[in-house]
Amino acid sequence: MVSAIHPVTAERIARHGFVDRAAADTAAGARRTTAIQAQDPIQSRLGIRSRSAAATEIDVLAAIEPDRTVVRTWLMRATIHLVAADDVRWLTHAVGPSFARRFRKRWLDIGLTPEVLARTVDAMPDVLANGPRTRREIVEGLENSGVSFDMTDPQAPTHVLAHASGLGLLCRGPERGRDSTFVLLDDWLPRAAAGPRGDDALAELARRYFAAFSPATVADFATWSGLPSARAVQLIRDELEPADVGGRPGFRAKQGGEAAPATDCVRLVAGFDNYLVGYRHRELLIADEHRAAVYVGGVIKPTVLVDGRIVATWRLSRSQEAATVTVLPLVPLAGAVRDAIAEEVADLGRFVAQPARLSIG
To answer: How many CB atoms lie within 10 A of CB 222?
Structure first.
């Protein structure tokens, strides 16, 4: 399909799980890249599909509730992720303190002073004592507890919830129609592992990153994690080896590397996927002239990868009868690529339990 796959992208797509799609279940699919970005719930489910040939959408939904083997909460870069239940506590401990550094000025600007935030944290256990609550219900519960804040900024409740999530107090519960709900983490996942703490947690975060994203630079790790990178990399330096990353000095994990795929790899990759957000420099992923078609403001569109390079965007629409995948090429697509995309569309139909048809724009 292409004359030669770049060795960096060959290793990356294998480590991300796109080549073998070997994740046995939803938790394993999320853990493959530490967690799956999930501000869009549908895209997060599709992110599991691209790493698992076995999981279905029903499996992912069941893993969230009732199985609770995965959970959604704010993690890296203070964005929502789908994460294995046994990873949520140590990851929150590792990245949660960065939320305050990231949003301190914004919180002060909208009246969320340290005193106000402390009062919301104190009241939250009573507000959520009887199970999942929506944002609106939480705000009403806080007000009934004597805790109010300036609602002129519509994002204020979200920031209150993100702050509490960063402390490990709460996480997201089941969806209620179009509304998200929130629960006390200790109530929702009482048996979730504590995991590492302090430098051990920071080291594990760096270890997970380079295991899944190698070869990568220190700046790539900082872009993905939202954390200062020098100490994290130093903590696991003996587990890394130097690597050339498109002409930049970087590292790869010594363990867990994969050989380049023996056959061409075409994948429908979800919007906001870690592969699309986990690197500071993206020239190995996409040509400069096509970036604006994929990275649109704060939105990162679903993409078609051919051997790790973005060649098209795509969108999914669903009716009661069928699912339709519309592919919008950024470059001419050879017949073999179109055939491989059609196979991916068929697998997506398996995943969503609907006949799926392909439309190429």
So the answer is: 16
